[in-house]
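User: Can you predict the 3D structure of DUF4127 family protein? Sequence below.
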Amino acid sequence: MKFFRMGLVLILAVFVFFSVNSVSANGSKPGLANLMMIPLDDRPANLYFPEKVGKSAGVNVINPPEEMIGYYNTPGNSEEVGQWVVENSDQADGFVISTSMLAYGGLIASRTGVKSLEEAMENIQNIKELKEKHPDKPVYVYDTIQRLAVTAISEESREYYDLIREWAILYDKVHNLGMEEDRERLEELEHIIPESVLNDYLEARERNHEVNKQLIDWAEKGYIDYLVLAQDDANPYGLHRAEREILSDKVKSDGLENKVAIFPGADEVDVVLVSRFASQFYRKSSSFYVEYGGIDGADWVAPLEDTPFDENVAKHIESAGGVMTEDEDGADIHLLLNTPSEETSRREADINGMIDRVNEWVAEDNQVAIGDVLSVNRADEPFVKGLANQVDLTKIRAYSGWNTAGNALGITVGHAAAREAFLSQKSGFGVPYYKETAEAHYEFLLHRYAMDQGYKNVVKPEADEFITEIGANPWQLDDDYDTVNQFVRDSLKNQTEMWYKQYFKGKEVYLGSRGKKDFHTTIGNLERLQVELPWPRTFETELEPDLEF
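Assistant: Sure. Here are the predicted structure tokens for DUF4127 family protein:
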């Protein structure tokens, strides 16, 4: 084993020498390894997040050209994306592939019945071609189990969002579980929802389910090294429940529990699989010691999810290349999860207890990751403000409060495990390279606090109020885009600069170690700050800070 580790170090040292003198695809900066990715869509969660997490671990994430992957409700070009990944595959050391993009043109397109089953199956043949061409390179694939609702991109679709979601839940209750008391409302909904809308929804579900099953078959045959089937926004009841049970039974009957994971989530999976690649590349499986700040994960099903949260935690850690441990002292990463309090009266005490726990771990030089999973699509404001005022935020290895509990969990775990895998290598890297990866790491940390608290709890509510005042359409900004975008840009820049000045500027931070020597530096200026609404709505925004060390 000692010989193998020494060999890996020598390989990495040689790789560093050659990679810094090479040019990677799309003009990206080179890394120790090139990971080619077909993202879920063009949102920051599926481009910026995995790119920064990869760079923090020395992994260069290569995405298709922007014009191939679509924009908002305009699907990407599946055929061109598939051709791109095969033609450029020699540049890659591994692959992360969203079949939502490869088969249909992205997540939104996957929720419509526009692409036929035959077209979808033809588009994903590139996965087999990749593995046949590069049998020794890891191919990680993920798909979604379709959520209950359609995509809300207009007032009309918002109406169907609620109606179809309710219909899918009641259909499962009445037809699959015999809850006859819900039949009257189910039949009422079937008269309200246009037949064409319902048929499109059902055709998409049926097609996607067949693709899910095909991917499991390919995992069994070795075309896919690891497969994630992520359950998009769900509920304990609904059409997805029977689909998931069929897929789970298939995984078990094929003996694929170690190659296929099924869990609630979607947007975080790019980050999770980047982490899995980094963990494999560095031969480091990070161990996680898990604590819950409120109720135990076994006793909580998070909003928009359908399984006990502790099961979701275990599956995300495994999928990211990590393992769980009960050895608090020996764990690589101490993961704190901000779950609901058992009683409202206990909330303040639970927040104080979590902050004390973080300070205790930090004082003992433990690596701490925080999944702020309490609230959907935003940080828990009292918790994160208390954390910022009482803890050195640069000592936290990873944090996320973005979107659903599964999303926040996966981003936190993926970032922490990827960075840990890189830092576990104690030789082979020069200080300039440690500095480059550290810049990406701390930029992403700053992004997370400014985004999940500053944007979601401060700027977005103000922007939505501003949209109402000017009479704009929140689902499609169109001619009001520039005005709203400028409002968001100005407000979020102020929030990000506040987070930088108060909690990051001038802090001495760890870069890495070579042998027994540790390297540190100081966070300098916030040199640039890119803020832009990527889609004509305020649900998400680009936020890309550049720090100078």
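The chain has a mean pLDDT of 92. Residues 228 and 261 are 5 Å apart (CA to CA).
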